[in-house]
Amino acid sequence: QKEVEQDPGPLSVPEGAIVSLNCTYSNSAFQYFMWYRQYSRKGPELLMYTYSSGNKEDGRFTAQVDKSSKYISLFIRDSQPSDSATYLCAMSGNTGANSKLTFGKGITLSVRP
Amino acid sequence: EAQVTQNPRYLITVTGKKLTVTCSQNMNHEYMSWYRQDPGLGLRQIYYSMNVEVTDKGDVPEGYKVSRKEKRNFPLILESPSPNQTSLYFCASSLLPGQGNEQFFGPGTRLTVL
Fold first, then answer.
1. Which residues contact A71 (CB under 8 A, 6 or more apart)?
2. pLDDT digits over B57-76, tens only?
3. Closest approach of A12 to chain B, Cα-based (Å)
4. Pairing of strands B10-13, B109-113
5. B46 within 8 A of B60, measured Cβ to Cβ
6. Is B108 in contact with A41 (Cβ distance < 8 A)?
7. Which residue, among B7, B33, B96, B101, would best test binding to A if mutated, counting the most A CBs under 10 Å from its CB?
8. Would you call the peptide bond into B8 cis, given omega within 30 degrees of 0 as the criterion?
9. Residue A1 — very low, low, confident or very high, per pLDDT cuts 50/70/90?
10. What are residue A98's phi and psi, to 5 degrees?
């Protein structure tokens, strides 16, 4: 089982839809959870960061972490064409080999006007 | 402006011709890393560096070399490129490895090896 699994997509939704992106993981040492967004022909950029379990909201974006289920989600409300990008989950632990950031494979989202 | 720069952005070369992709960051970061990104495989770490003169293998180091002689620079060297190294390459840096430290990525280098 891979350390981080992410739905491969692609995903296409109409403008205004609520989008749910998910990742599961197997390493219980992971404490730091991130979502990166990558536009076409660009490098990934940090979108959301959550430490341990719980929710974090930033505008139309909400990140959720459920450590008991080893499951993280990113919700996008009122999706816009400008949200069209590849979204990568990433996570790491505190020490040693676990401190390396481990990425999911990414899912490409397309928001249709 | 805080940034990671990579050069060249695009490169087409032939099998066996040595090449270097440069990477530089202006944020005084300790940790630097090289990734390759391939369809269906995601981002895979090639090499990383914890500090000057400290480098280590990532998940896919075969066929690559790196050096870290200065804190800001972390070049990626392909001594004898092969077609299976055709990929999109990203350099990244962060203050420290993992632990929630944001990784800043360069714009990418698209390499084609014929």
1. A22, A23, A24, A25, A65
2. 999 999 999 999 999 999 99
3. 18
4. parallel
5. yes
6. yes
7. B101
8. yes
9. low
10. -70, -15
One-letter amino acid for residue B13 of the chain: T
d(CA B7, CA B29): 19
3-state secondary structure labels for all residues of B35-69? EEEECCCEEEEEEEEEECCEEEECCCCCCCEECCC
The 10s digit of each residue's pLDDT in B17-70 is 999 999 999 999 999 999 999 998 999 999 999 999 999 999 999 999 999 999
**Rounded CA separation B31/B102 (Å):** 11
- Chain B residues in contact with A32 by the CB 8 A cut-off are 98-100
| Separation of first and last alpha carbons in chain A | 38
Bridge partners, residue B37, by sequence? B43, B88
d(CA B68, CA B52): 5
CA dist list (Å): A25 to A10, A92, B100: 20, 11, 16
Cα distance between residue A11 and residue A20, in whole Å: 10
Q: Is the dihedral of CA A3, B92, B86, B81 positive or negative?
A: negative
> What residues contact residue A97 under an 8 Å CB cut-off, 6+ apart?
none
- The tokens for B100 are 């929630």
Q: Quick check: A99 and B99 CB within 8 A?
A: yes
Distance, in Å, from the CA atom of B60 to the CA atom of B6, rounded to the nearest integer, reads: 20
Amino acid letter, residue A90 = A
